[in-house]
Amino acid sequence: MSTSITTEPDSQVVGIYQRMTALAAEHSAVNLSQGIPEPVYDAEWRAALAAEVCLAHFQYTPSAGTPGLRESVASLYTDGLPAPVITSGCTESLAAVLLGLADEGCDTVLWLEPFYSYYPGLARLAGMDTRSVPIDLTGTAPRLDMDRLAEELAPLGRRGVLLLNSPHNPTGLVLRRHEWAAVCELVDLHGFHLVIDDVYRDFRYDGPAAPYAALMETGRTTVAGGVSKSYAAAGLRLGWLLTPDRLARRAETAHMHLSNCAPDLLQRAAVRLLAEVDSMRLTHTAQSYRRKRDHLLAALTDSGFTASVPDGGHFVMAVPPADRPWGPEPAVDLLRNTGVCALPLDHFFTRPDAPWLRFSFGVSAGQVEEAAQRLRRARTARNA
């Protein structure tokens, strides 16, 4: 039986990122607590913005996005998918589609646990009840219990929403082909709406991309994405939604009430950037992330952590070594004792069964190396 999710005030859930970053700065720690991508495309973004600034206007743009950017985003996906709606970031995409689904009569959203800590707040804004299905973290890599997922979705029927991100934040779970096929069958069988948080789509180290065309054929699937991770522009706040026409109209109305439209200059620059950064460059970037993942995993394991191996995304989840006492805030203890800052995952669980920490390898290779050295030095000092 799944558990209804209760959360602390949203300010505490969101504030943990700012708190850990401030502590990292105060203690000169290597900050692995935030999901900020390495700025590998900053030069390209600056060039694109500079090239477009004299052509851009500074008035309203179409709420659904400029034709140029909508075409560019559509080209990233399988032919035949709905035209995208451009939003102010993937988080707003999720908010808009949940508000649109609530308007259609959906009243419960289900996701995998641990869950991205913003999800409960987004569901609450839409007036939806929330439920979760746990990811199995007992092995060396995260695993999804498809039978359990099916059991939890069956009673929700058409009033239910499955919010699914693959690669998953924070575990790095990537669904396999048979799992995607099972999700498609469940949508057809029970009639719930599937919302895919696709923001880490280009950071898969093992496992396939989502079968977008097959999922869209159900008529009950939405894909939400953005430039934040794949194009290393988390602060640019450009996202998109691909969703059936009836829901697109509702979601666009919600988007109009949230931010109305994205700036013309940013959309123009994004058109240039998406054309310049091709699939080969995205693959090269993902390969560099995989190397950083492996380096960080080795350091955590050598330092006595119990780590879960992610198949995608930017994060490693790990439990601190049990050979030393930890206070009520293991992440703060770790920061002060090693100079490495991780994110505590209390807000990603209903009731965490262990003091899980999330370490980002989205930082530079040099920062990963420095963090690895600090973790190993601290382990050596404890054993001396």
Give the amount of beta strand, in percent.
Answer: 5-15%
Q: Which H/E pattern describes the elements? A: HEHHEHEHEHEHEHEEHHHEEHEEEH
* Helicity range: 40-55%
End-to-end distance: 47 Å
Low-confidence stretches: 1-9
Family: Belongs to the class-I pyridoxal-phosphate-dependent aminotransferase family.
Organism: Streptomyces durbertensis
Protein name: Aminotransferase
Cofactor: pyridoxal 5'-phosphate
Overview features:
384 residues; alpha/beta; Aspartate Aminotransferase, domain 1; Aspartate Aminotransferase, domain 2; seven-stranded mixed beta sheet; four-stranded antiparallel beta sheet
Task: Please give the structural blueprint.
Blueprint: H1 10-26, E1 30-31, H2 42-52, H3 67-74, E2 85-87, H4 90-103, E3 108-113, H5 119-125, E4 129-134, H6 146-153, E5 160-165, H7 177-190, E6 193-197, H8 212-216, E7 221-226, E8 239-242, H9 245-258, H10 264-276, H11 279-302, E9 306-308, E10 315-319, H12 330-338, E11 340-341, E12 343-344, E13 357-360, H13 365-383
Parallel strand pairs: 1-11, 3-4, 3-5, 5-6, 6-7
Antiparallel strand pairs: 2-8, 7-8, 9-10, 10-13, 12-13
Structure explained in plain terms:
- With about 375 residues, the protein is of the alpha/beta class.
- The chain has two domains: about 10-40 and about 280-384, Aspartate Aminotransferase, domain 1, CATH 3.90.1150.10; about 40-275, Aspartate Aminotransferase, domain 2 (3-Layer(aba) Sandwich), CATH 3.40.640.
- About 40% of the residues lie in helices and about 15% in strands.
- The protein is built from 13 helices and 13 strands.
- The strands form three sheets. A seven-stranded mixed β-sheet has the order 2-8-7-6-5-3-4, sandwiched between helices.
- Strand 9 and strand 10 form a beta hairpin.
- Helix 3 runs parallel beside helix 10 and helix 4 (about 90-105) packs across helix 9.
- The longest helix has 24 residues, at about 280-300.
